[in-house]
Fold this sequence. Notes:
The chain has 17 helices and 26 strands. It is α/β, with parallel strands linked by helices.
Amino acid sequence: MTGTLLERPWTAEGLGWLRVPGDVAARFRERGLWRDTSVLHDLFRVGAGRPDDPAITVFGARDGSVTTMRYAELAFHVRRFAAALTALGVRRGDRVAFQLPNWWEVPALTLACCWTGAVAVPLLPTLRALELERMLRVARAQVCVVVDTWEGYECVAALEEIAGRLPWLRHAVVHGDRVPSWAVDFRGHFLHTPHEERYPPPRLPAGDDLDRVCMLLFTSGTTGERKAVLHTENTLFAGTGAGGSPVERGWDDGEVFSTPHPITSQTGLLYCVWGPLLAGGTGVYQDVWTPEHYLELLSAASVTQTFLAPYFVQPLLDEQRRRPRSFPSLRFVMTGGAPVEADLVREIRERIGVPARSCWGMTEVGMGFRTREDDPGDRAASSDGAPIPGLDVRLPPEPGGGGVRRLQVRGASLAVGFWEPGSGRPFHETWRHDDGWLDTGDLVREDGRGGIRFVGRASRRIGSTFMIPVAEVEQEIKRHSGVREVVLVPYRDESGHESSCAVVVAAGERCPTLEELVGILVERGMTPWYLPTRLLEVSPELPRNENGKIRYERLEAMIVESASSPDERRS
């Protein structure tokens, strides 16, 4: 196949050629890692057998309400939404973008796209006009659904501003009380009109349909560049670990999942949409993150497992310390996306009363590694777990890395392709490149038990001849009582040598000096070239994106800005 998807028009024909080779797909099916039935079959099976079981529970910040969507209700709305898309002229391969909070309409729209053969393009509710336009342009979306106003931001005004510059956009759909005349009223069109009477949905996708692109996801872009990633139903299925046993994948029938992450992100999508449907269980979330309400929801909804990045865990623990609650159904707290420290693992056990489980994943792979329920309770403090079923791993040594290795993966959960819009780099078709192996860009150590421990991003590699193990140095610095948060960020000194700057959020009124931190590291026996040579204090917290991931490109800019005053306080 010549050319790239990036150079092709976004058409059903253009997407049709993007397939995993037949022998690879057959092998995945033989191993039970892929299947011939859709997640829609799971929805309708449970909807018929247990119609009153909760599929979704959502806490609404606007009015403090708790909405429970039962399986029969969700099945009804998915059918109606699929017909509503057909009424708008949506066909196989069209892109349907939606920028909505954590509401039940998100999974309903996602599943409706799967049913009609459209490509779902979930977008984070925190995106502003500039990024929204870029993503809609990359997707060439024919339909875009937004909420009228959210968290003080006029989403509909942003869409109105950019719509005229998007020639592919046929329909702007607005969910809310203020729907302009130029837009489609979501409630009127999707909720209250029985389109299914005129446009019966097609048969449920099955067989090879599940190997077609069904979703376009954007990575979080913490290093400054977002990727556009293409998944199929089967790669998403494998990305939940569904092909493994309950112990291997970490969930069983009837599981109740929760997360504070946006369910329009890959993390939230797999954990609180795909996972619950495959388990015949429940997805629990809130539309605005508040630790106190999240704890109440964990208890009231009988949540059995929750996933939170470390950034979300600490305020949850602080709130639990302030007013303890009990969680009789909760089995464990899953955390990942950043180094999981021993102190955090211990405090989760002390405050929440359940073990911590750690994991590693990425948008292109899904849930790649996880610690298992039969692992020792403290393993999360030293490991990110073993690969999920169907994920192959190779770990070539990193030159000058002192035991650090580069993480490369291949398997059933890998996206079928991705590209970096605007970079000039070609489209990456997974199974036509290096026999399906993907260099994740992550650096790890082997944990001695068949698993890995995340060390850092290769893009965050610091050093010239020798590499600094970034995560390990950060963990040592964070042991200082005066440090609440710290990250190492590379910079070039006057001689052009790459060194590290410790970017610190102080735990109190006074931030430790560089000399203090270096002195402690030396006392602990830290290798000399690992030591930071500069310190920058930021306040009140590190800049982060909507998933709690640190925005390193912003920190690099702050270091450049503060070059004339290395110890300057930044906010």
